[in-house]
Amino acid sequence: MTTLHIEHPITDFTVWKAAFDRFADQRTARGVREHRIQQPVNDPRYVVLDLDFATTTEAEGFLDFLRTTVWSSPDRSPALDGTPTAMILQPAAAN
User: DSSP assignment, residue 77?
Assistant: First the structure.
């Protein structure tokens, strides 16, 4: 399993969540198997998002979609405040 880990500040969680929900079909079509949304206990204007994929290729493709189609458009990413930080993670090898 590969995880696309994303963090960024937001202006309003309700607005951000509504925009996130509008892309549910895109997430499914592009290979997202599960997702988790979290927020720091002391900062309601920040989100941490983990999207799980079967492959690294799917995660890379979805990150490209976010960068070129979603995050580049204020209409598609309302409440985004600043530039997201994203990294693709894989399980560490067991010793």
Answer: S
